[in-house]
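Throughout our pipeline, every protein is held as a single compact record rather than as scattered files. The record that follows is passed on verbatim for readers who wish to inspect the format.
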Amino acid sequence: VQLQASGGGLVQAGGSLRLSCATSANRLSINRMGWYRQAPGKQRELVATITSGGITNYADSVKGRFTISRDNAKIAVYLQMNSLKPEDIAVYYCNVRLRSGIHYWGQGTQVTVSS
């Protein structure tokens, strides 16, 4: 299973970015897709997930600012990030969890927010 993430970059505080992630996983085998991030010197943390049924979950720190969505036809997941803050600086990783319980990770995309 492969994941290809894109959309990171440099933005000013208060700005927006949209991350995209496409996967080669079989759509019917996917239980959940999501985004995680890892800031320098910190552990990887959950940002947002979305189940095959469309149920979403967000970290408290991004609620109201980030929106996760998925395109089942394209087998892709997106993260719309608004009102970005310097504390959002991290490498963002796309994740796919299959119904078997196996996880797969994308290569990571850097998000940098200038204050």
About this structure: The longest strand covers residues 30-38. The chain has no helices and eleven strands.
